[in-house]
Design brief:
heterodimer; A: mainly alpha; two-stranded antiparallel sheet; 19 helices; 77% helix; B: 309 residues; Rossmann fold; 6-stranded mixed β-sheet
Chain lengths: 526, 309
């Protein structure tokens, strides 16, 4: 008979083994691919690091969400374990211990591989400590329950700050390693407290007032709706309308963080580092937006699946066409909120810029970067792609369900890896050339099918597809662009092929408008 | 609901040759079913028998792969508005958005149904003692069922589809509420189709019953006919029998020695004749419960499946 601890560990392994194995094999695969000569020799380190990071991202995802059933992915500590006759200390220790060992395993495997075959020891133990600290802190965050989640984060940060201040005041040695150890200890204690409280369910009511406070800012429906469409738009907005602005805030925060932290490496002797011009556009808008919105959407969808509310809209006595229009209206509503956030951020950056002059590096200058280091046609195309990619991800993939989201994330990764190896220009050029053929044809095909099924009208397509870009461009990029660089002059230089590229990019907004009713119809009448 | 609108002359539910597969698994096999106006129709079967799948077809949430589904003469996939506006639906999972408050849920649902009866909805809210400011996620399973029931009843739909309505309700509330609502709706000329695996409950309120087993309708008739056509008889033989006796329409036979009990789907006279021929007497004849019939039917079906293998 196996012990309780062994069974808990076995169960954990069964749920997460795929990520542990992937994390162990990916860095070695990267090394082998490089050795086999498939990647340029000058990118050796970069190449291995990408595979290394990818492995750890998979592992952390596996450890954080792999603790529950895949259908109900949730970050909370799995409730089913509370029914077992096992002490909370054991549960927390087994889960954290398993995570710590899993994080160390890929490191040790790769370290051993490098040492054995190349006699290299470039991977220092401090990296492992950073990885373990990151994992334990994330795990502690993931187990925070109820509305108190964010308060715990604030409390932890304040605690860390106090420790740091105390160390400075009394001239105590405060190396990075000591700081990591403090974070690990703090995270362990917080994890235990939260799991313990969650197990006895005593927490939620105590923090009910926080939920009430959040609800004050949400739009409530106290009066009867004037029409079914009005009601459905309200429902759509309330259901997912806040996710886009919130994820945008996260993206902006990430952009600001990355920009500020990398500012000094980009600037060298008052000159820009010759960075690929397409990187900021693609990176700033597509990748983080897709990744963050994707993660948030996964969490939202898993909650909807768990509550069964995912199919609620399907039972409304409305045509799928009307439901799709309501969804598009609601999306426009959340985009309006997004624009408001952008406006506030721009204002804040401009004000801040007056003080320290970092406007050129901030989130809203990718178009300027692109224009500075590339030809105007490529810049126009890339700007359109960058601008619309965010919306495309939101409208179609995000609304279509977790399967498509996971697919899009894999696609993203598949696009990033070759881009990092062979350079953005080469890959993007291939992508653009493919888009020229595939995109307009796919949209035409989808429109034909939607029209045949009476799911869309030409008017809806045209109005909805161009409403967003017109608003977006007129409010933000276009005036700035035309005043600084003079648009007519730039456009006159275009050749035929470049115009086709721009047209292909401009068909992007049609995707969500055509795809939304089709996907909704498919989901509604399986 | 305006009864003069189109579809009034049609039967509330007509299903012909409906087959549905999920991958390799056949969930529904050639289902034929008609539900008449003003009847309470019970759909019974084990968990996973295909009851919810059938109801989803009636709602248009699943498209018929083979066969035909008509609700008031309308195809639910082609005209979801025509069908959904006439149906009050209570799902098995009580799948309400957890973020909504009860009053928001009422306002929201009301917008889709012009015949929404505000005073009736309020009355039901009072009867069920639901707090309008409570969020769905704060409700117990039973309270969620009640909230969902209000949204399904308040516009007095001509067809009520209840998927496992008793699930999550305590026995007292289940008996009072379910009985009263189903009977009231049926009395007013509206139609109810409800699925359940609690056969006692079905027996109490249903006019017609269809038994589904592994995606097939194994029996469909009025409850009266079903009960009239089945007999639970106890036979007493002068000497003990080494093996079970052969009786006409026997679905199950149990016993040993001199006394045997059988559930037969045949006329009582035929059973008595056969008993006389075997030299035994019919010691007892009592009407079987729906549960007896269902268990026997499913047993026969399983046996025939085993033979088929």
């Amino acid at each position: 008979m196996y012990s309780k601890v062994m069974m808990l560990l076995w169960e954990r392994w069964r749920r997460t083994y795929w990520s542990v194995i992937a994390a162990c094999l990916l860095p070695i695969s990267g090394r082998l691919i490089y050795m086999a000569g498939f990647a340029p020799q000058e990118n050796a380190v970069q190449f291995t690091v990408i595979f290394w990071n990818l492995g750890y991202v998979l592992l952390i995802i596996g450890l954080l969400v792999g603790q529950c059933e895949v259908r109900y992915m949730d970050l909370a500590f799995p409730n089913r374990l509370f029914k077992l006759p096992v002490r909370t200390t054991t549960l927390v220790t087994v889960y954290l211990g398993y995570g710590v060992v899993s994080m160390a395993l890929p490191f040790l495997v790769f370290y051993g591989f490098e040492k054995l075959f190349f006699d290299s020891n470039s991977y220092t133990w401090s990296i492992l400590l950073v990885l373990e600290t990151g994992y334990i802190a994330l795990q502690a965050l993931s187990w925070l329950g109820g509305p108190a989640r964010f308060l715990w984060v604030i409390l932890s940060l304040v605690g860390l700050y106090l420790v740091y201040t105390f160390a400075v005041m009394f001239n105590l040695p405060m190396g990075k390693n000591i700081l990591y150890m403090i974070i690990i200890l703090l995270s362990g204690v917080i994890s235990y407290l939260n799991v313990s409280v969650c197990r006895h369910g005593a927490w939620l009511n105590d923090w009910k007032w926080v939920g009430s406070l959040i609800d004050m800012f949400r739009k409530r429906s106290s009066k009867p709706f004037t029409s079914a469409m009005h009601a459905q738009i309200w429902f759509e907005l309330r259901q997912t309308g806040y996710i886009l602005p919130i994820s945008a805030l996260c993206v902006i925060g990430a952009i600001l963080g990355i920009t500020v932290s990398t500012m000094y490496s980009v600037v060298h002797n008052d000159q820009f580092y010759p960075m690929s011009p397409t990187v900021p556009v693609m990176f700033y808008f597509t990748v983080p937006a897709a990744a963050i919105a994707g993660l948030i959407a996964l969490a939202v969808f898993s909650r909807e699946f768990a509550s069964g509310a995912y199919i609620f809209w399907m039972r409304r006595p409305m045509t799928t066409r009307t439901l799709a229009v309501a969804r598009l209206y609601a999306t426009a509503g959340s985009l309006a909120r997004l624009l408001a956030i952008f406006a506030v951020v721009i204002l804040a950056i401009v004000v801040y810029d007056c003080a320290i002059g970092i406007f050129d590096f901030m989130a809203l200058s990718p178009v300027k970067w692109a224009l500075k280091y590339s030809s105007k046609p490529e810049a126009i195309t890339m700007s359109l792609l960058g601008l619309f990619a965010f919306v495309v991800f939101y409208w179609t993939l995000f609304r279509a369900g977790p399967v498509l989201l996971i697919g899009s994330s894999i696609l993203n990764i598949l696009m990033i890896i070759p881009s990092m190896i062979w350079g953005w220009e080469v890959v993007l050029s291939q992508v653009l050339d493919t888009l020229i053929v595939v995109l307009p044809l796919s949209i035409l095909g989808a429109f034909y099918v939607a029209r045949r099924r009476n799911l869309i009208t030409t008017g809806t397509l045209v109005i909805a597809a161009y409403a967003f870009p017109v608003v977006m461009v007129s409010l933000w990029a276009f005036p700035w662009w035309s005043t600084v660089f003079g648009l007519p002059k730039g456009l006159l230089d275009l050749n035929q092929f470049q115009i086709i590229r721009i047209i292909a990019a401009a068909t992007f907004p049609f995707i969500p408008v055509v795809a939304t009713p089709l996907i909704m119809d498919k989901l509604r009448h399986r | 609901m305006n009864d003069s609108s189109y579809g009034y002359r049609e039967q509330p539910i007509e299903v012909k040759g409906l087959t549905r597969k999920f991958g390799r698994k056949t969930a529904l096999k050639n289902i034929d079913l008609t539900v008449s106006r003003g009847r309470v129709f019970g759909l019974v079967g084990e968990n996973g028998a295909g009851k919810t799948t059938l109801i989803k077809h009636l709602m248009g949430l699943l498209k018929a792969q083979q066969g035909e589904v008509r609700v008031f003469g309308i195809d639910p996939v082609k005209d979801p508005v025509g069908v959904l506006s006439r149906i009050g639906y209570l799902s098995e999972d009580r799948d309400l958005p957890h973020w909504m408050r009860i009053d928001e849920l009422m306002n929201y649902t009301r917008a889709f149904y012009p015949d929404w009866d505000v005073s009736y909805a309020q009355e039901l809210l009072n009867i069920f003692r639901l707090d309008p400011s409570a969020k769905v996620k704060q409700l117990s399973r039973g309270q969620k069922a009640r909230a969902a029931l209000i949204t399904a009843l308040a516009y007095r739909p001509p067809l009520l589809l209840l998927d496992e309505p008793s699930s999550g309700l305590d026995p007292v509330v289940r008996r009072d509420i379910l009985g009263a609502i189903i009977r009231t709706v049926a009395d007013e000329g509206r139609t109810v189709l409800f699925s359940s695996h609690l056969l006692e409950e079905v027996e109490r309120v249903a006019d017609d019953v269809a038994m589904i087993h592994e995606g097939k309708v194994v029996m469909c008739a009025s409850l009266e006919e079903i009960k009239d056509s089945h007999h639970f008889v106890t036979l007493r033989f002068p000497d003990s029998l080494p093996e079970q006796p052969q009786l006409p329409g026997a679905l199950s036979i149990e016993g040993k020695g001199q006394e045997w009990t059988a559930l037969c789907n045949s006329k009582l006279e035929e059973v008595c004749e056969r008993a006389t021929a075997m030299g035994c007497e019919v010691f007892e004849d009592r009407p079987p419960t729906l549960e007896d019939i269902f268990v026997a039917r499913v047993g026969v079906d399983r046996a025939s499946l085993r033979e088929g293998e």
